Amino acid sequence: MIILVFLGSLFSTLAIGLPVAFALLTTGIVLMTFMGMFNPQIIAQQMITGANTFTLLAIPFFLLAGELMNAGGLSRRIVHFAVTCVGHIRGGLGFVAVMAAVIMASMSGSAAADSAALAAILVPMMRDAGYNVPRAAGLMAAGGIVAPVIPPSLAYIIFGVAANVSITGLFLGGIVPGLMMAVSLALMWGFVARKEKVETLPKSSGSERFKAAGAAVWALFMPVIILAGIRFGIFTPTEAAVVAAVYALFVGGVVYRELTWASLYRVFVNAAKTTSIVMFLVAAALVTSWLITSANIPNQLIGLVEPFIDNPRLLMFCIVLLLLVVGMVLDLAPTILIFGPVLMPMIRAAEIDPIYFGIIFVMSTCISLITPPVGVVLNVVSGVSRVPMGKVVYGVLPFILSQIIVLALLVMFPEIVLTPLNWLR
């Protein structure tokens, strides 16, 4: 009965258009009332306790790093470097988008920020070159969702906190799946764009490539610092966020000299606004998470899915399908915060590696960022590229298929994730 109360109150509040954070708080109040333990002080205490976590400090600093990258010229130089490498081949600007998406993903970890940067720079170039604009916009959206899978990732940080899983392990385990997503995008782009008659860019000379690499070397060195520092224990993922923000500030302000005081003010304001939204959502979700545990809902769900416990792959397929459907109406962070703590006891009971599950969980929710009707990244790309939402949805369909194929492969063959993860640990 309490499961029905939880799901009914959550989805009814979302259905009437209540913001997700307030819907979660309302669901918590309904659960407390149903359990006969309503106390506003508990809600306030759990919100403060939930948000007062050292690990969550990584969120504002990674968001700040992403804003500094775009304002400080790092993103633009990365795109230019990719253009000199692969821009001259047929469909080259699409491959530029994939290459740039991977490099930028290893710096910021924000799907919306990366998609916006890619769309702002590359969609006008692809439009002028004669590419199918909706398909190009769809590629920008699909490229953006690689960001939360390749470390560093805000999604991994939120999942690690909500589900009590090693964030360092999630970071290391996400490298191979993220690269597989990028390769699948490149292959699908090569397939759908093979018949397009477009102007190809002139092939860059060796000196031009060397010059572009020299201009972008400061930006390209950033993921090396972050991943090497985490891998060799020089700093934690939370400290890596601070390093990323300071490094982006130094490069944009001192090396590239594109950060002005006015742009710096806008950067900090934008990062603060986004941080406040995310942190309030996290605090509200952790109240609901605490009540879910108090109501013993995870154990009740384990009882419902007990027939699947002995078949981990079938269980994972069912969970992935659930997440893809839920993600069509919920954003990434709420999905993680609501379903991560609920599903984790099942995963442990089925003896599935929690880090592997966390990566599959994040990949599933990331794919949902480019599926209608919500499709947060779709809306971002549509607004930035000035392409109607319906056309962006049409353009992104082949790339959704390619990402689902990668996801299915990882569910069928967990060793693809676990083998390199065990080597990196």
UniProtKB/TrEMBL annotation:
Domain TRAP C4-dicarboxylate transport system permease DctM subunit: 7-416
Membrane topology, from the record: Multi-pass membrane protein
Keyword tags: Cell inner membrane, Cell membrane, Membrane, Transmembrane, Transmembrane helix, Transport
Superkingdom of origin: Bacteria
Keyword Transit peptide: no
Function: Part of the tripartite ATP-independent periplasmic (TRAP) transport system.
Pfam families: DctM (PF06808)
Transmembrane regions listed in the UniProt entry: 47-66, 78-103, 138-159, 165-192, 213-234, 240-256, 277-294, 314-343, 355-381, 393-418
Assembly mode: The complex comprises the extracytoplasmic solute receptor protein and the two transmembrane proteins.
Subcellular location: Cell inner membrane
NCBIfam families per the UniProt record, alphabetical: dctM
Species whose genome carries this gene: Pelagibacterium nitratireducens
Family: Belongs to the TRAP transporter large permease family.
Primary localisation category: membrane
Protein name according to UniProt: TRAP transporter large permease protein
Residues forming coiled coils: none
